[in-house]
């Protein structure tokens, strides 16, 4: 029955999203939706690496930022946006190939720390090299409208979800999950672990670069180091864990909650929504490794979780 | 040039002692504590309040030390004690994630309470320096910080090599199972080493407080610390301090040649290069 519901609901949802700009005319709401799409692309691409491959990256913002930077520079210099976007994605992939693969060769915690360092290098370098804000030229500004941005963002979200959905159900995807669960055993049955981990890394960073491209296309004017901000590295793991890691819907649920909270607290000083999400993140890592989506799963497991909470202080 | 090197060494001793705290938890219990830098910043805020009450920053070190130790014990009880029995790989992963959340909570909580403005502790002697010979100055605060760092490291070394409890902690770091068979209380050893690691943040708290700090500086200091830890070799406590000095000196030299904006970048680039060329660190071997 559940499968039937999905078959009806999913196309309905897609039709709804496609027709949204014709129903809702508010520019503000549409641009909020684009921001949501960016969060979802980034979180899904992080999930491919952190959830399915088991390689927690704390520097996804670097790939996002490189995608944004390259797309923006090409687009401003009159390369059509449909070409600049994939080029931005490839730039992010290139960066990942240079820095990420050496990190994979080592055990222990090198990958999270290496990516964290990478995102800091990128942030500092870009904020030193590009001091001025990147505003649009007058002719680009005159032709600015929100519809094309909305549809490009929507297209990339759907592309991301379809690619990851079919990837994790394919033969390489199964190999990737096997590596996460037990790398030594996977290597023992003949899976080339480095090859498949690299594949996941390259696809994931390409998608993150596309998300950056959408950001660059959406915003009229921003400082070039804004998409390199560490918040872009820290948000995807948070939203993914809170929604439900290693699931397709988890990053989407998490991103919606995150954006809703950030809108509610938009007028308060500081970033209360990150504070709340940080708390939830700790609680979920400790007690609910499946995230919000796993709450419904069964009353028995919920009882054992309650017991775990009770014994927490003992 | 000599002046630059002196600043490098003094900065490096600060890096070394920050890295020591991170290395201690990693070496003994395979925990990665991303919130270490944020806890140091909390200590700085504590020292700032004590300074407003009229206490000299260097005299407030014992108070900050004790409160950080207690904070470390409480945090371990609340957040980290569940992972003690996990396998090594998932212990790293889980502690990394939990401390990541903790880092965000501390950073944004501190922003709410103290705003994101940069603050610093300014005692009357903050700019003073000795002139050792012509054109060669040694800043008073940096020198005191370096001496304190050396004292703390010697104390830690004596603790691990001379006391019974310190030796039992070393035993746990080598083989927790065998240590527990010999009658060592592994959970208590973990608890105390985590408290000690956070408590090692007290001296950096004061030194960072005397420079400048803001809630978001925590992750940057952690990053400095973890770079030094990896330069020294992950889990190798004795490689950490030389690696800190090395990073400090290299940064100082890079400021001399490329200018101040690229100081941080040099450190990070060296880190990535070492990661690729010497995966086991400059001074190290990973005890397996």
Task: Name the descriptors.
heterodimer; A: 314 residues; mainly alpha; two-stranded antiparallel ribbon; 14 helices; B: mainly alpha; ABC transporter involved in vitamin B12 uptake, BtuC; 12 helices
Q: What would the average pLDDT of chain B be, to the nearest integer? A: 86
Helix-strand makeup class of chain A: mainly alpha
Strand ordering within the main sheet of chain B: 1-2
Roughly how many Å apart are the termini of chain B?
41 Å
The helix tally of chain A amounts to: 14
Reported for the largest beta sheet of chain B, the result is:
2 strands, antiparallel
Summarize the structure.
With 314 residues, chain A is mainly alpha-helical.
Topology:
The complex is a heterodimer of chains A (314) and B (288).
Chain A: H1 2-23, H2 27-52, H3 60-76, H4 81-104, H5 110-129, E1 133-134, H6 138-142, H7 146-168, H8 171-181, H9 183-188, H10 193-218, E2 222-223, H11 230-243, H12 249-264, H13 272-287, H14 299-310
Antiparallel strand pairs in A: 1-2
Chain B: H1 2-29, H2 36-52, H3 61-80, H4 88-114, E1 129-133, E2 136-139, H5 140-162, H6 164-174, H7 176-181, H8 186-199, H9 202-211, H10 217-232, H11 240-258, H12 263-277
Antiparallel strand pairs in B: 1-2
Q: Can you characterise this structure?
A:
- The complex is a heterodimer of chains A (314) and B (288).
- With 314 residues, chain A is mostly helical.
- Chain A has a domain at 27-241.
- Helix content of chain A is 76%, strand content 1%.
- Chain A contains 14 helices and two strands.
- Chain A has helices at 2-23, 27-52, 60-76, 81-104, 110-129, 138-142, 146-168, 171-181, 183-188, 193-218, 230-243, 249-264, 272-287, 299-310; strands at residues 133-134, 222-223.
- In chain A, strands 1-2 form a two-stranded antiparallel ribbon.
- In chain A, helix 2 packs antiparallel against helix 10.
- The radius of gyration of chain A is 20 Å and the shape is globular.
- Chain B has 288 residues and is mainly alpha-helical.
- Chain B has a single domain (2-277), classed as ABC transporter involved in vitamin B12 uptake, BtuC (Orthogonal Bundle).
- Chain B has twelve helices and two strands, in the order H-H-H-H-E-E-H-H-H-H-H-H-H-H.
- Chain B has helices at 2-29, 36-52, 61-80, 88-114, 140-162, 164-174, 176-181, 186-199, 202-211, 217-232, 240-258, 263-277; strands at 129-133, 136-139.
- A two-stranded antiparallel sheet of chain B has the order 1-2.
- In chain B, strand 1 and strand 2 (136-139) form a beta hairpin.
- The longest helix of chain B is centred in the N-terminal third of the chain and has 28 residues, at 2-29.
- The model of chain B has no long low-confidence stretch (mean pLDDT 86).
């Amino acid at each position: 029955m559940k499968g039937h519901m999905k078959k009806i609901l999913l196309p309905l949802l897609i039709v709804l999203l496609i027709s949204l700009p014709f129903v809702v005319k508010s520019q503000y709401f549409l641009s909020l939706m684009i921001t949501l799409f960016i969060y979802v692309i980034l979180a899904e691409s992080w999930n491919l690496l952190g959830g399915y491959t088991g390689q927690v990256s704390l520097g996804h913002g670097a790939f996002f930022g490189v995608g944004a930077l390259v797309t923006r520079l090409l687009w401003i210099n009159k390369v059509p946006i449909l070409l600049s976007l994939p080029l931005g994605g490839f730039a992010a992939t290139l960066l990942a190939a240079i820095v990420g693969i050496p990190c994979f060769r080592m055990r222990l915690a090198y990958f999270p720390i290496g990516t964290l360092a990478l995102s800091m290098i990128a942030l500092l370098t870009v904020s030193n090299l590009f001091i001025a804000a990147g505003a649009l030229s007058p002719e680009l500004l005159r032709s600015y409208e929100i519809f094309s941005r909305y549809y490009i963002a929507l297209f990339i979200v759907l592309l991301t979800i379809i690619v990851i959905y079919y990837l994790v159900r394919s033969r390489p995807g199964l190999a990737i999950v096997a590596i996460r669960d037990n790398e030594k055993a996977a290597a023992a049955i003949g899976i080339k672990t480095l090859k498949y981990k690299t594949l996941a890394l390259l696809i994931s960073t390409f998608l993150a670069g596309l998300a950056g491209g959408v950001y660059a296309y959406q915003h009229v004017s921003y400082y070039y180091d804004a998409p390199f901000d560490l918040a872009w590295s820290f948000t995807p793991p948070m939203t993914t864990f809170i929604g439900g890691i290693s699931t397709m819907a988890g990053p989407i649920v998490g991103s919606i909650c995150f954006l809703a909270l950030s809108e509610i607290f938009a007028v308060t000083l500081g970033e209360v929504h990150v504070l709340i999400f940080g708390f939830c993140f700790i609680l979920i890592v400790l007690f609910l490794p499946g995230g919000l989506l796993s709450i419904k799963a069964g009353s028995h497991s919920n009882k054992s979780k309650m017991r775990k909470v009770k014994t927490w202080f003992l | 040039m000599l002046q630059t090197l002196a600043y490098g060494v003094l900065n490096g001793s600060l890096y070394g002692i920050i890295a020591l705290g991170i290395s201690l938890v990693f070496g003994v219990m395979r925990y990665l504590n991303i919130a270490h830098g944020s806890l140091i910043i909390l200590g700085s805020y504590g020292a700032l309040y004590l300074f407003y009450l009229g206490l000299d920053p260097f005299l407030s070190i014992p108070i900050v030390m004790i409160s950080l130790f207690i904070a470390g014990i409480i945090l371990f009880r609340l957040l980290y004690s569940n992972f003690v029995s996990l396998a090594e790989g998932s212990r790293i992963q889980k502690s990394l994630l939990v401390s990541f959340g903790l880092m965000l909570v501390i950073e944004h909580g501190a922003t709410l309470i103290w705003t994101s403005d940069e603050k610093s502790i300014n005692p009357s002697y903050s700019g003073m320096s000795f002139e050792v010979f012509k054109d060669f100055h040694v800043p008073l605060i940096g020198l005191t910080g370096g001496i304190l760092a050396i004292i703390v490291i010697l104390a830690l070394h004596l603790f691990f090599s001379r006391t019974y409890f310190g030796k039992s902690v070393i035993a746990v770091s080598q083989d927790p199972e065998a240590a527990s068979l010999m009658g060592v209380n592994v959970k208590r050893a973990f608890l105390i080493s985590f408290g000690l690691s956070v408590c090692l943040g007290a001296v950096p708290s004061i030194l960072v407080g005397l420079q400048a700090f803001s809630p978001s500086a925590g992750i940057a200091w952690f990053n400095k610390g973890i770079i030094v830890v990896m330069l020294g070799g992950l889990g190798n406590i004795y490689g950490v301090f030389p690696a800190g000095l090395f990073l400090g000196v290299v940064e100082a030299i890079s400021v001399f040649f490329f200018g101040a904006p690229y100081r941080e970048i040099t450190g990070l680039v060296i880190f990535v290069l070492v990661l690729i060329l010497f995966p086991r660190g400059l001074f190290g071997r990973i005890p397996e």
